């Protein structure tokens, strides 16, 4: 393990000989950041890029509406349930080989999905994407964690990474719309191949081979099985709720079984010698608050990406490409605050930026909740997109940084995986719960009314705005809870610093 940095060595503006001497990537750190950011973009945009292409793919391959959701859920199921194991493998086998393996596997799965001639192959390819994404994502974030050790530079690096993570979904909508409209739905899969090839070449040239850490331990088999089964069952149950309802046997059994298995996982992790997820990583106040931030943002972002996409495409009649480009102001807002606030976060810590950012996102949701059938983009959608983007950028970048700060090298991968796991679970909860709220609100609105086209449109918009009100509440609760949990002041970067609660 690298020699610990002293408090003086970590102070802003002071030279850090230990970091530059022990870190073989110091000279090329900004180029490495570009490669890592590209890899993260591949993973994040694939959560949304397929959405716009789904109707076209459904028509081409001839699968049912009930089957359609599994194109999205198959990816989320594999990705969410395997992230912690992927992070541990990164710690054990090395970040460089797992990063490259994840990229190559993701590209191969994307190529198979693009060439799919039936529903089964397409779903299988999406599941494979999720598997390799679970290898790639924690390796990317842990590489970022150990590459940037200077406090100011680390804040900038994580600001860029946070901007990519927050805006990648919107970029996916733009790419999905453009590729579907001008090429083919198959290119929403194929596009990953050249991006991954560029990232693999960059990783092979820039990342140094490093010996396995002497502190690395073996795989926690019981914990791995429990968390995979628990997260898989939980995500599957939430996905089933959208089609089968919350009271269905499948939904209830899977959700209850998933939560039970995760509870058993927590007990096991507190007792085994080499846990998959050392519980002190979660119980640290700053890291715990960071995990909650990305979970709350995952829930809220789902409301924007899915239901605002429905609104502009179905209610306003936008084309796929125009729908994607309508989210550009939010991307710019995310990038502005994520990168522009790096210096501020390095000086004062994440507490205030996260609190303000989540409140801004709540304001954006309230503006979306005012939408009507005849609302216009410039007057009624654009302000909400800008404000929401500013808030998400201000929240995500410091959360990613704080979530991996103060973690020793042995656990950098699993800490990184935990961030993505919480974000994925947040998105899965948002998918199921908010979809159910929208469906119920739409049905209730139509009760006692004639099933005319006008009433159908009004009911659909009522369902969307109901979701936006709930999302606003999620962001407010997140702001209050996470604002209370974060400790005031800058976050320690020293990986050997004492961990509160350990």
TrEMBL record:
The chain crosses the membrane at residues 30-54, 69-86, 98-116, 128-146, 158-179, 185-207, 219-239, 245-268, 289-312, 324-345, 352-371, 377-397, 467-486. Gene3D superfamilies: MFS general substrate transporter like domains, Multidrug resistance protein D. Residues 32-490 form the Major facilitator superfamily (MFS) profile domain. Its main location: membrane. It is a multi-pass membrane protein. PANTHER family: BLR6921 PROTEIN, MAJOR FACILITATOR SUPERFAMILY MULTIDRUG TRANSPORTER MFSC. This is MFS transporter. It comes from Aeromicrobium wangtongii.
């Amino acid at each position: 393990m690298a020699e610990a940095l002293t408090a003086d060595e970590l102070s802003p503006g002071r030279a850090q000989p230990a970091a530059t001497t022990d870190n073989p990537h110091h000279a090329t750190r900004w180029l490495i950041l570009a490669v890592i950011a590209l890899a993260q973009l591949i993973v994040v945009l694939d959560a949304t890029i397929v959405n716009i292409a789904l109707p076209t793919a459904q028509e081409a391959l001839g699968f049912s509406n009930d089957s359609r959701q599994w194109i999205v859920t198959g990816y989320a199921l594999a990705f969410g349930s395997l992230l912690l194991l992927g992070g541990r493998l990164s710690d054990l086998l090395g970040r460089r080989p797992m990063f490259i393996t994840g990229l190559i596997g993701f590209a191969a799965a994307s190529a198979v999905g693009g060439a799919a001639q039936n529903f089964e192959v397409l779903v299988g390819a999406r599941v494979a994407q999720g598997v390799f994404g679970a290898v790639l994502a924690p390796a990317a974030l842990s590489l970022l964690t150990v590459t940037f050790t200077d406090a100011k530079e680390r804040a900038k690096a994580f600001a860029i990474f946070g901007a990519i993570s927050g805006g990648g979904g919107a970029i996916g909508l733009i790419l999905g719309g453009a590729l579907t409209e001008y090429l083919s739905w198959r290119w929403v899969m194929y596009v990953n191949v050249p991006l991954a090839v560029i990232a693999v070449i960059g990783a092979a040239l820039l990342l140094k081979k490093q010996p396995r850490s002497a502190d690395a331990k073996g795989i926690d088999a019981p914990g791995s099985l429990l968390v995979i089964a628990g997260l898989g069952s939980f995500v599957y149950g939430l996905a089933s709720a959208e089609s089968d309802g919350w009271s269905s046997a499948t939904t209830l059994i899977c959700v209850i079984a998933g939560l039970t298995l995760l509870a058993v996982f927590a007990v096991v992790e507190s007792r085994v010698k080499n846990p998959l997820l050392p519980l002190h990583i979660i119980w640290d106040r700053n890291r715990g608050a960071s995990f909650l931030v990305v979970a709350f943002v995952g829930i809220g972002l789902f409301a924007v990406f899915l239901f605002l996409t429905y609104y502009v495409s179905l209610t306003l009649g936008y084309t796929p490409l125009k729908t994607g480009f309508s989210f550009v102001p939010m991307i710019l807002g995310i990038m502005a605050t994520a990168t522009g606030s790096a210096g501020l976060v390095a000086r004062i810590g994440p507490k205030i930026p996260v609190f303000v950012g989540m409140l801004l996102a709540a304001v954006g949701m309230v503006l979306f909740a005012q939408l009507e059938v005849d609302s216009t983009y410039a007057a009624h959608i654009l302000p909400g997109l800008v404000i929401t983007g500013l808030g998400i950028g201000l929240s995500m970048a410091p959360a990613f940084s704080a979530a991996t700060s103060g973690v020793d090298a042995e656990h950098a991968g699993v800490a990184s995986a935990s961030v993505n796991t919480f974000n994925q679970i947040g998105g899965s909860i948002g998918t199921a719960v908010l979809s159910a709220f929208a469906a119920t609100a739409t049905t209730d609105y139509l009760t006692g009314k004639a099933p005319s086209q006008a009433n159908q449109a009004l009911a659909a918009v009522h369902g969307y705005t109901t979701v936006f009100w709930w999302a606003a509440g999620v962001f407010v609760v997140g702001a209050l809870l996470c604002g209370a949990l974060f400790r005031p002041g800058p976050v320690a970067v020293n990986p050997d610093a004492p961990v509160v609660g350990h």
